Q: What sequence folds into this?
């Protein structure tokens, strides 16, 4: 009997796209045995069809015209790996209009235009796979949509950007500063020439926006998420964190109390005993908390040609299974039925409660500690511990480190605004939140 074939069009033949082609070629027989059909790439569209990607492509497959994939009558699934907002959005909507199922790893697009894309898919009763959009090879999206389908989530937090995690790991264990760690990450291909999205937390915000939608059925605008990056973290803060028994990680956090969401991205101090404290290098990890299992932690490679390519191929096979079985929307794209995806109020960062690490640089004068402590006390902030390091030898002040008990963010910010105006304070105070 002739083997059925699922035909695919690929948009974007860069790092991930070439990984997808390589995996489909090397694993063709394994996929056929598991799927009961073959997967054939009919068209690959990219502006650059001359550069050698290290994979063999049949004559006539490569094209500079995306429409050859989007409008091809035989193509069942379009894979979008261009990235960014446009023309990716236009291409995906055109693929859907033409009756093609979609697979994408484009977290920025889904975070910004997810409502439009999911509505178009629902109207056409087509499937979408986007496992590769969050944490690469970690099957967090499939876990939330299927494995944990009965669970009521209370929190999701993750190390979901390998570039930032690599830099912080090097600063912690390699005793180097931010700039040196970034240069090394770029030299090894872990960071882009322009690393802004990674180091300033924007990439992580896209990802936590997607996970928030899936976990709680919440429609949120990623631009409303409080985002802080790691570019201002110094070796001094890293060392102080170690002295207190913590490590600094860039966390994407989403918590739900049944009424409102607390969604944010920022560097945080986590105890060395925390299960994610030793997720180092370019590894990613996602911690899921719910009402049944307390927590689950998924760890794996969050980026790269083959890890992300593996997630994309997994999505293609899942869509292919739906096509072969005649299933339509077997699993809701957004985890919840579309009618149950609704806005949930988002807390302002000023409303959260946390413990805080405060790094002051102050004049080496008597009474400074009592002045700062007095301001904190006036704002209902209790001090848990204090470290004062060294003596002032160059007129730039000395570091004064404090850890607080749980306090309201607004109170902390109001207190720091007042403290930073004191004549004994030399620089703007550094604040890091503590997550346990």
A:
């Amino acid at each position: 009997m002739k083997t059925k074939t699922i035909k695919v069009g690929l948009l974007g033949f860069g790092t991930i796209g070439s990984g997808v082609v390589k995996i489909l070629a090397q694993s063709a027989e394994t996929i056929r045995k598991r799927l009961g059909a073959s997967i054939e790439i009919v068209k690959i569209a990219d502006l650059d069809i001359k550069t050698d990607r290290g994979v063999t492509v049949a004559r006539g497959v490569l094209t500079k015209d995306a429409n050859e994939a989007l409008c091809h009558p035989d193509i069942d699934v379009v894979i979008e790996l261009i990235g960014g907002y446009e023309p990716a959005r236009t291409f995906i909507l055109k693929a859907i209009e033409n009756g093609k199922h979609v697979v994408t790893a484009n977290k920025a697009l889904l975070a910004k235009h997810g409502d439009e894309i999911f509505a178009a898919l629902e109207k056409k009763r087509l499937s979408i796979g986007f496992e590769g959009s969050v944490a690469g090879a970690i099957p967090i999206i499939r876990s939330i949509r299927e494995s944990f389908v009965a669970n009521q989530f209370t929190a999701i937090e993750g190390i979901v950007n390998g570039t930032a995690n690599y830099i912080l790991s090097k600063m912690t264990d390699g005793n180097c500063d931010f700039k040196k760690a970034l240069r090394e990450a770029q030299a090894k291909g872990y960071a882009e020439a322009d690393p802004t999205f990674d180091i300033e937390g924007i990439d992580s915000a896209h990802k936590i926006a997607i996970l928030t939608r899936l976990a709680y059925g919440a429609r949120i605008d990623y631009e409303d998420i409080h985002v802080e990056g790691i570019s201002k973290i110094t070796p001094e803060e890293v060392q102080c964190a170690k002295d207190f028994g913590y490590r600094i990680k860039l966390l994407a956090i989403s918590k739900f109390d049944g009424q409102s969401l607390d969604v944010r991205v920022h560097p945080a101090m986590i105890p060395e005993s925390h299960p994610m404290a030793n997720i180092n290098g370019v590894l990613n990890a996602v911690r899921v908390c719910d009402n049944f299992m307390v927590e689950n932690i998924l760890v794996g490679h969050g980026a790269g040609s083959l890890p992300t390519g593996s997630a994309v191929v997994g999505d293609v096979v899942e869509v292919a299974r739906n096509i072969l079985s005649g299933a339509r929307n077997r699993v809701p794209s957004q985890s919840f039925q579309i009618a149950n995806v609704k806005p949930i109020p988002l807390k302002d960062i000023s409303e959260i409660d946390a413990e805080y690490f405060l790094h002051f640089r102050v004049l080496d004068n008597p009474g400074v500690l009592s002045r700062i402590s007095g301001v904190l006390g006036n704002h209902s902030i209790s001090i848990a511990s204090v470290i004062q390091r060294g003596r002032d030898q160059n007129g730039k002040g000395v570091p004064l480190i404090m850890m607080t008990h749980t306090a309201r963010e607004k109170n902390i910010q109001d207190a720091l605004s007042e403290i930073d105006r004191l004549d004994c304070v030399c620089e703007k105070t550094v604040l890091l939140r503590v997550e346990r």
In short: DSSP finds 14 helices and 17 strands in the chain.
